[in-house]
Amino acid sequence: MAATQTIQVPHLGGIKAGYALSNDHYDPSKPTCVLINSMCMTVSLYHDQFNNKELTDAMNLLAIEPLGHGATSCPSEHFTYWDSAIMALQVMDHFGIQKAFALGTSQGGWMVTRMALLAPDRILGLMPLGTSMDYESADSRSKGCWDPAASLTAFYDKWTSPLATPDFVVDDVWCGLVGGIGFGAAATAEKSAFWTQTLKEVYKGDEGRKKVRMALNCLLERDGLLLRLRDIKCPVYWLQIRALRIHHLEPSFLRSKSNFSLLPRRPNWS
């Protein structure tokens, strides 16, 4: 399911940002970790973390649904990952959170890295999970990464319409791709059913069509960050899943970061 709580932040003329906050309040005596979900997922991606009492006793968890996802909406049909990063920083402002660690899964890794570039004094550390810092480049292809344009542009074209689409509901094929690619070998029938239902609740009607279309546009046409990585000032703790070839870790990130740790893991997004 999408976030059940939203707040208003000023970026892009007023964004309604979907979020989940552990224990339903911010405890300034504890460190905070901001969590940004992967493509078409919601704050529910971090359900297990929010239900881990040992973890939530030790730190605040603030999951934020980026633009084009979950309960988050804004007046502008167009936005980028930079806009989601600014929005996330403004959500931190709303709760009075001056500094935080930031964890991002897949596309969330692109957003939390942008947060660290925009506010280097506020992000204490980055935890990118199964992500990339490149745009969808030929160099990425040469390293064995997938080519989303070849597979997904047809969806973007299908979701483009000059007329309103009040009866739109995202189809089962897209729902299957999101769950299959996102969870890989860790996918289960239960997870597939949950996320199919969630996506169909979020991406319905004309607003839902525009929302999923722009979420995909952000994926396909994002800018790369490789030349900016040398400006990342905080420690980076990167978990990369070797069994999933969606993204490949760029050697340039390793060369640019002295405070960098890489932990390869088996596929497990739970």
Automatic annotation (TrEMBL):
GO terms for biological process: acylglycerol catabolic process. Pfam families: Abhydrolase_1 (PF00561). InterPro entries: AB_hydrolase_1 (IPR000073), AB_hydrolase_fold (IPR029058), AB_hydrolase_sf (IPR050266). GO terms for cellular component: membrane. One of its GO terms (molecular function) is monoacylglycerol lipase activity. Residues 55-134 form the AB hydrolase-1 domain. This is DNA, SC011. The lineage of its organism: Eukaryota, Fungi, Dikarya, Ascomycota, Pezizomycotina.
